[in-house]
Amino acid sequence: MIHIRPAAPADVPVILRFVHELAAFEREPDAVKATEPMLNVALFGAHPAAEAVIAESDGMAVGHAIFFHNFSTWEGRRGLYLEDLYVTPSARGGGIGRALLRHLARLAVERDCARFEWSVLDWNEGAIALYRSLGAKGLDDWTIQRLDGDALLRLAE
Fold first, then answer.
1. Per residue in 53-108, pLDDT tens?
2. Do residues 82 and 65 lie in contact, with contact meaning Cβ atoms separated by under 8 Å?
3. Which residue in the list 18, 81, 86, 131 is annotated as catalytic?
4. Which of 48, 52, 88, 86 is nearest to 67 (CA)?
5. How many other C-beta atoms lie within 10 A of the C-beta of residue 114?
6. I need a surface site. Which of 49, 74, 109, 115 has the fewest CB within 10 A?
7. How much is the pTM?
């Protein structure tokens, strides 16, 4: 039985472990800069930047989703953006990813969000197949743009 619940501060160590595992899966094992104190503030501080839910099977944490609200000027309403969706390798194929997505879709509807969006690596065929089976569509005419590191600092000067 899959149980999905809001994350609590005591979950921060497992969330960080899942973040590291996801980074390794995404072929960026050394890219994670987040620490437990950083995640604690980001998820449970005075002004949380994001929210998280934990998926459990037989009382064990087997996955999570980290998400936050964005805003559409065209819709005039906020949306829900999924930053991380992770299921441990041993629990994959058991419907946990689908359950996490369904949980977030329900939250989006309850919160009157116009959209539920996320990004996926173009080589992650298993995830893409799952998303298509749920009715998600790729936005091929949009590309993600990012400024970070020195480029971000240069523009900010």
1. 999 999 999 999 999 999 999 999 999 999 999 999 999 999 999 999 999 999 99
2. yes
3. 131
4. 52
5. 16
6. 74
7. 0.93
